Amino acid sequence: MEKIALIADSTCDLDKKYIDNYDVKILHLKIIYKDKEFIDRVNITPQEVYDNLKVEVPHTSLPSISEMHNLFNELEKEGYTHAIIIPISSGLSGTYNTLKLAASDHTNMDITVFDSKSLTLGAGAQIIRCGEMIKEGKSYNEIISSLPKIRDNIKVYYMVDTLEYLIKGGRIGKVSGTLGQLLNIKPIISINEDGIYYTHCKVRGKKQAKNKLMEIVENELANSKGKVWVMHGGALKEGTEFYENLKSNENITQIDIGDISPVAGVHTGPGLLGVVIEKEPI
Hints:
Layout: E1 4-9, H1 16-21, E2 24-27, E3 30-32, E4 37-39, H2 46-52, E5 59-61, H3 65-77, E6 82-86, H4 95-103, E7 110-113, H5 121-135, H6 140-152, E8 154-159, H7 164-168, H8 174-182, E9 185-191, E10 197-204, H9 206-220, E11 226-233, H10 236-246, E12 252-259, H11 262-268, E13 272-279
Parallel strand pairs: 1-2, 1-6, 6-7, 11-12
Antiparallel strand pairs: 3-4, 3-5, 8-9, 8-13, 9-10, 11-13
Helix pairs in contact: 2-11, 3-4, 5-6
């Protein structure tokens, strides 16, 4: 009899209701300041990160390999025979590769570390689908063979209020980023097939960027139905307004709203607004 564990990292941004419903085990990334260290989503909030950014921009780090080993050991003790792990994209973090390394030492379980090639609720949506299949009684092999198609049906798009923190974190070129700031350019950022950021399009001004995000959702779901998650980083009011405006779209079968993790907030700064779109299979 298979007993399948489902594992994510803290940047998946899943609401507690999903974590509890699908019994998702979470590995927490860390936020490191000069004089202290915090555990993502445990003893620091996104707002606390934003409030302190003008004073200090912290570093972030992945879960330690010892924490991964401890989790696998605990799962073995609890009788799990299989584990499916879906972390943040390998193109954005070393978490995936470290998990692969740690998993190779635990041969008593069959372990799949699947590259989400996404982040935030883009990875979270993949975890939810896995959780649904586990509850439906699907086998381990059935689930892992479905993962690439599930991933292909999920898209992430977001805008940031300022390019300052993407520049500081090396996520965007200093010259182009500074020029963009001066011209009030708001790039809509997405993730390519390799799981790396790219600029989907550029618009001038925040209002136009919000309109563009709305248009992207409408275009993605023009010929199919799907689920949408609105995500925000220190922009609850704008996120809620965007969520309310999307609710009238008849092709959206389910819509939710959530905030991005403190770790992600370090790199984007406050004011992020984005969407995750999961198309239903045709």
